[in-house]
Amino acid sequence: MVVTSQQSSRCPECGSTQLLWNKKKGEVLCRSCGLVLDDTMIDFSQEWREFDEGGSAVRRGGAPMTYTQYDRGLGTELGTRADLSRMGRKDRSKFFRLRKWQYRISTAIERNLKMALGELKRVSSFLKLPGSVEEEAARIYTQAVQRGLVRGRSMESVVAGALYTACRRHNIPRTLEEMSEASGTDKKEIGRTYRFVTRELGIKMLPSRPGDYIPRFASALRLNAKTQSKAIDILEKARQKALTSGRGPTGIAAAALYVAALLHGEKRTQREVADVAGVTEVTIRNRYKEILDELKLEKMLQRALERAEKAAKRRR
DNA sequence: AAGACGAAAGTGGTTGA
DNA sequence: TCAACAACTTTCGTCTT
Q: How far is the CA of A248 from the C1' of B7 (A)?
């Protein structure tokens, strides 16, 4: 068994958080009770194995293909070389009809892809997303178009949904809010299409982890590295106290950062943190109280605040 | 005046009959 | 398919600094 990574979600059977991703078998399973949580995991990673024992040139896949080009450089047309003279009249007309439809469908898909991939590039560069994410989003979008999932939805929202999905799969989640702002489409709409498309394409999503948001939020708030690692520390403890399950990961991340900043004398207002994280102050307050209660941080916080107070006085 | 706090009502999504 | 439900938001009044 090859354990490639561990996720912080929870086993529904025994509540253990010790889950294993077994990429070889495509399973997620619980370490303590052995329950298989997910056996239809799709491995989107690249395939580098040698299938030929001798190590000769037999590999899966050919030249690198890119999904950010609308036809991936591989166009297919129906029957340009068919021998028409040897067909009957019926076959011939059938052939023309098929070719016409194939042409229509493929040109429609291609036109759509051309537009959409332009949009995708624009949004992803606006959000400064890495090429690997863009590539994956393009792949997801391409599949969505081919399965006719875009029909009835706006192209923009599907693009945004694909990017949102790709970000999460790469453990650099963006909030729906950010996607909405970057793509200029409605937040709820993106959420809806995102759910629809992942369901239809059988892409399994685990809940995003609060920790994945910390570095980005911290730098947006210009908090130093120590505060950031303190926040991650808090997050880990909160997870052990079962404070994270069922709650929105961004809210938890925001509260952890807020507390960490207070403890390290780098106070940020709830509003500032809330804006960065895309949640409300109320949510931060709720999470923050839970964290204080469960981790017994009140006294430590008290001391930190007094220290900050003194420092402020000395400056005056 | 700004920030923090918390109550109350509203929203959209999930779940289970 | 519908209702119950939990999390989260919006809004607003009050308290603290």
A: 22
- What Å value separates CA A282 and C1' B8? 13
Token pair in block for residue A251: 């809210």
Distances (CA, A) of A280 to A199, A235, A254, A258, A285: 29, 19, 10, 13, 9
Q: Provide the pLDDT for residue A129.
A: 95
- Record the pTM: 0.73
In angstroms, rounded to a whole number, what is the distance separating the alpha carbons of residues A26 and A85? Answer: 51
In terms of pLDDT, which residue wins out, A54 or A15? A15
Residue nearest to nucleotide C10 (CA to C1'): A280
Covered bases, chain B (protein CB within 7 Å): 2-8, 12-14
Q: Which residue has the higher pLDDT, A268 or A82?
A: A268
> Is the Cβ–Cβ distance between A261 and A221 less than 8 Å?
yes
Domains in chain A, please, with CATH? 2-38 (2.20.25.10), 108-201 (1.10.472.10), 210-315 (1.10.472.10)
pLDDT tens digits, one per residue of A19-32: 565 544 445 655 55
